[in-house]
Amino acid sequence: MLPWLEPTLLNTLATSRSHALLLQGPAGVGQFELAVNLAQSWLCESPQGGGRACDHCASCLLFKARTHPDLQILVPEALREGLGLVDEAETAKESKTKPSREIKIDAVRAMLSFAQASSARGQAKVVIVHPAEALNTVAANALLKTLEEPAGRLRFVLTCSAPESLLPTIRSRCQPVSMALPETAQALAWLRAQGLPEADAQTLLAAAGGRPQEARDWFESGLKGSLWNAVPQAIERGQSLLFNDWPVPRAIDALLRLCHDLLCQAHGAAPRFFGAALLPKLQSAPPLLEWEQRLRQAARHAEHPLNAGLLMASLVAQGQQALRAASRRELH
Ligand SMILES: [Zn+2]
Hints:
The protein is α/β, with parallel strands linked by helices. The protein is built from 16 helices and 5 strands. Helix content is 49%, strand content 8%. It is elongated and about 70 Å long.
């Protein structure tokens, strides 16, 4: 259980009045973990104070073994491994196709027959959809009727970090639960407990915009705080080698965050993702806005670049030119 979720969990257990909840807030703050905790609490056969799961009853044991018959989790294939939902048989199977980032209609159909069947343990049944924006249109429409009038004691928890991208008909059927970024001190304490040295925890938490899970994932994939701190100077010097080992979407995202911070600073506001002392002092915003536009274009195709090295070299060169131009002109 992520420590900052505790108050939201208890509050949601106490106040939820709908059979369908929509957990909404930034990604990387524990939406899936909250959904799982709610589901376990609802399925628990001996709930504790505040309605929390007991962790010991037959239902909780099945839940923890990931074999609870009254729980269905709908997530895109691409997220299954990261969420620990892949079993050994699946790992052994070699897949030729790239895992999908969508929740497909087949998964929703399987869930609909689960929704019709009676509860295996005679208690509630729970469906988790994570994240709801991964439902493609056909899948979302197939879900609607059951979401509105579920049979028996069926409950839904949907998560989402971009509510505006959901069908309004999905949103209107759910009770919203807002999730916020955890406080910095709590997030840093958690990151230290995950094994991050203090300096990395601080740098990467800021780099991730205050989202502790994202900071932890970056660290585990090899991104150290010192590497993040080297990004502004690499752009000033036009060096793209730094990004050789980064997945292209993350490298472009880092440049977009740098661009954001440079624009903040050019307008006299505090940067968010990089330390202020690491950023060059700029006089003018327009060259940065041009670079930002190029980066956004590149980000749209970042999953399948024809040549990652060339793409990054060109984006970095454009960044270097933008920085030079921005340090010359007057602020507009
Ligand atoms: Zn229990």
